Amino acid sequence: MATLRYVGKADAYDVYLARGSDDADTLCLSLVLGGVWQGIECEEDAVSIRISDSASVAADLSHRGGEVRDMISENVWVSRK
After folding, report:
1. Are the C-beta atoms of 47 and 53 separated by less than 8 Å?
2. Which H/E stretch holds residue 33?
């Protein structure tokens, strides 16, 4: 995995995003809560990780807006049920 970059907050979590070091199409999301790593998910093209029973953090480098989303950064948002 390439260097993680802080992208913002999702509820109480700090959210970090990285691209794969060997595969630029791989995205990784990491969550930190109270200074403790809570989880990491890596997928090709788009990735999401649950933060509660009703919400997930998602990232997609091809996202270009137009939809109503709780945006954290340009390509990272919170998706709620």
Report:
1. no
2. strand 26-33
What's the pTM value of the predicted model, to 2 decimals? 0.80
- pLDDT of 37-61, one tens digit each? 998 999 988 899 999 998 999 998 7
State pLDDT tens for residues 59-80. Answer: 987 766 555 678 888 788 888 8
C-alpha 49/C-alpha 57 separation (Å) is: 5
The closest alpha carbon to 41, from 52, 53, 51, belongs to 51
* ∠ Cα 19 26 46 (to 5°): 105
Nearest one of 25, 22, 10 to 58, comparing CA atoms: 10
